[in-house]
Design goal:
The structure holds two protein chains of two kinds.
Chain A: H1 3-20, H2 25-30, E1 34-36, E2 42-44, H3 50-73, H4 78-91, E3 98-101, E4 104-107
Parallel strand pairs in A: 1-3
Antiparallel strand pairs in A: 1-2, 3-4
Helix pairs in contact in A: 3-4
Chain B: H1 10-13, H2 15-33, H3 58-71
The chains are: A alpha+beta, B mainly alpha.
């Protein structure tokens, strides 16, 4: 292998492994960093970091697309789908994780 | 009536000693505990009913609910 190719591979491996070390949603939830809300989207529980913001921005965007698809398929409004999603998401939240209730973050018992 | 072979604790066989020791214990214990009584807050409020104000036909609600179950599951990676 040429030196250039080897260097390229090293850099590529580093980039991919850094991506693999990124925060996942289950990790973020279990660490109490993010939680479910009545809006149907994820919120940040404590201090925002760029990692956490990137994570929820990604997930929330994909959720929004999914909600739009459901609304179109069923001839109902996105707003209604979001409200229903919010209730479901909060109900499905596992003990130890957080939900936003009455404007305050509460740990599910 | 007390059976003769029954062992009685020292405190009860010497009534006044028991009273003094207990009082001393309470006094010392009370002084110690006042600075470290943890306050545990328990949420005992009644569960609240949320009026979603969603105008949706029942059949559609069932479908939407099922589809949301797929979105809001670990499998989708979105929940």
């Amino acid at each position: 292998m040429t030196i250039l190719l080897r260097k390229g591979l090293t850099i590529a491996t580093l980039i991919f492994s850094m991506a693999a070390l990124g925060l996942t949603l289950p990790e973020a939830k279990n660490q109490g960093l993010v939680g479910e809300q009545t809006t149907g989207y994820l919120g940040i529980v404590g201090q925002p970091t760029s990692d956490i913001e990137a994570l929820i921005k990604d997930i929330n965007a994909r959720r929004h697309s999914a909600y739009e698809n459901i609304a179109k398929k069923n001839n109902t409004s996105v707003e209604d789908v979001e409200k229903l999603a919010g209730q479901k998401a909060m109900q499905k939240t596992a003990p130890g994780q957080y939900v936003k209730s009455d404007g305050r973050w509460v740990k599910v018992q | 009536m007390k059976p003769s072979n029954m062992k009685t604790p020292l405190l009860t066989s010497l009534p006044l000693t028991g009273l003094v020791v207990c009082s001393l214990g309470l006094l010392i214990g009370g002084l110690g505990l006042s600075a470290c009584t943890p306050t545990v807050k328990v949420d005992t409020r009644e569960p609240i009913t949320i009026n979603l104000n969603v105008n949706i036909k029942h059949e559609i609600l069932i479908k939407v609910d099922k589809e949301l179950d797929d979105v809001l599951s670990e499998d989708s990676g979105l929940f």
